[in-house]
Amino acid sequence: MxxxxxxxxxxxxxxxMLIIAMVLIPTQSLAVNPGEVxxxxxxxxxARNLSSKLRCLVCQNQSIDDSDAxxxxxxxxxxxxxxxxxxxxxxxxxxxxxxxxxxxxLQPRFGFHTLILWxxxxxxxxxxxxxxxxxxxxxxxxxxLNLTEEENAxxxxxxxxxx
Amino acid sequence: MIVxxxxxxxxxxxALAMVQSVVPVFGAKIGHxxxxxxxxxxxxxxxxxxxxxxxxxxxxxxxSDFSVTNVWQNSHSLQPMxxxxxxxxxxxxxxxxxxxxxxSLFASMVSIFGKNLPPELxxxxxxxxxxxxxxxxxxxxxxSNPFERLDNPxxxxxxxxPILQDVxxxxxxxxxxxxxxxxxxxxxxxxxxxxxxxxxxxxxxxxRPWTLIAWIFLTAGIAMGSYWAYYELGWGGWxxxxxxxxxxxxxxxxxxxLLHSALVMEKREALKIWxxxxxxxxxxxxxxxxxLVRSGVLxxxxxxxxxxxxxxxxxxxxxxxxxxxxxxxVLRAGILKSGGLFAPISREGxxxxxxxxxxxxxxxxLVGTLYPLMLEAVxxxxxxxxxxxxxxxxxxLMMPLLLAVPFGPLLxxxxxxxxxxxxxLYWAFGAALLAxxxxxxxxxxxxxxxxxxxxxxxxxxxxxxxxxxxxxxVRKNGLAKAFDRARGLPGSTWGTAFAHFGLxxxxxxxxxxxxxxxxxxxxxKVGESATISGHQLTLKGINPRKASNYNEDIINFEVLxxxxxxxxxxxxxxxxxxxxxxxxxxxxxxxxxxxxYVSLGEVSENNLITVRMWWKPQVTxxxxxxxxxxxxxxxxxxxxxxxxxxxxxxxxxxxVETDVQVxxxx
Lengths: 163, 666
What we know:
Chain A is an all-alpha fold. Chain A has helices spanning 7-24, 41-51, 70-84, 89-100, 115-145, 149-162. Chain A folds into 2 domains: 7-109, Helicase, Ruva Protein, domain 3, CATH 1.10.8; 113-162.
């Protein structure tokens, strides 16, 4: 039998996360605790910027910056550690993606697999304008050619009178 | 017994819907007036039956009848009365019943107010409404029956989800549903036009008020939901680009586009086919939204797979209606003749521009919302599409559109003059320029882009009234005459002005809170103080309190504002006793248009409380703007010329218009 859905590979991490979530979410606390905040305000600002673009993996649709879950807290601490160690923003993000997959990025990377997604807005506007332009052209040529022979004859006659 | 009766009337309504979905349409086909008229009675009967059914469920909730599974799962005898009512739709089954109820009420309104509609059109419209009713009534009865009983009724219910125990739930879903379902009328009209192959300005006259009603309620529902999330979730955000939010935003975008294109169709007989397509798209978005929220496909693809019955059922409804209507559109759209030529720079041209950008924005949100699902289905890759993506794509798409908004009403039909329009906008231009300069001068850290967007907001707000000032002309006419003229202007002109003004107000709120917001996070003990944007907050003490269905710790803050005023703010941490679920209640203090927002985090053993404070400048403008938009919608709806009851004259007028217009094919 062909297996479309590898349960062990696909579901186990999800179930694990759900269990973690169920255990941890009730101890509700706010995102970004004072203890996590870095002393260097520039570094802290970078950390906040990055963490607002990373997904909390056990939540529904929250960034780790907003989330109370402890996994989000771990990620916040982790990315701050890397920043303090001197990593650039990209290096931090690469590191986290290498551990958690691209799913963690709230802003998907531009690539072959997201080509349609990213090009959609621009493509639609362009296509829309082209279609409109095309219709406009077709209409204006049609209008001038739309006279019947009779009407053309009348025009020649009228023009002749003016001359 | 009442519960069983409610179940029974719902089944009866389904039977009636089945009859109504066939007989009147057939009557219209063979020209039998009696068969067509039957829909008048059946649609009203259905509304009565479903209302009774909804009343029965409400009765079960109000009396805490826990022998009904649905009541037991979502209610509690100690809940305050308001939440007993709103619990009715605070769950899957009940909310679908509300959906069906509103649908049937709308259908009965068509039959009551549509006395002047051509009988064939009315029969077809009511027939299509009945198709939708059949689909959703079967969905409720087969997969999501709210009237199921328990064998051994427990003494106490499991309580409503604490996050939903709020006035927000009482208002937000009904508003949104009226909006969603209101679009079904427009859809039914579009389908009727395709079935009969007839579509004239009178049709547009009918469609526009219904779209307006739906649009007003959608606006209200979305704005309300946004404010609810803002104060209830305690993260201080007001829009998260969450799929569920997108599900309500997409019909709004489609309805906004539809409003504008229906305008062209009504006045100029142009864009007919496009308007019909938009009407189909708008309701399809409503259906899609219902599917996304109700099937569980969003929480995870796996939730969908574990309980496939509901998901597959609603997916079938979705495919049947969207696929069916689009097929019908492809087959029949050719019959609808379009007329009304216009130059690119004209009122029509401006409205086409509007439609191009709104539909592109709609497609962007749609693809962004569904892309992760599609990609996972194609190659198993899991990606997320979140707020940064939408901000990067949706934002820039809106800018050219917003820039063009003030021009639209100033251009004349058929052929407009851009320069002349611009010359009426110098006030708006001056205000925008002044705003940009002031922002750059007084706030050194604001990015240039922010200053430009603030300028754009002022351009919108002032520019919205350019048409009014042009048509009253105070300088030429004097104040008294100008006032007279202003009163004489049609409601739709005022409506446009207020709606566009509201757009500017909302934009100003959005940009100012995203750029100038400040945030302080601090772990505090009793007696300690924190300062944010000139406000000094002192933690005075902790008051425990017992309410009927929760216990809470209220944290008292004494706040000293920069102006020297003193007030108390009381954020709280609650534990709902039944579900043992903790929630945080934020405290908000409004001064002017701005708000001070205080939310609580963890309380550690040594009584150290994590406090998160925000100063949100001009944040209320976001929702205030939506109020202006709704007000504009109401003004436009009240316009005498558009009143639903006056289609007779409308037909006549439309005829005259047809006669003068340039024939499409020579």
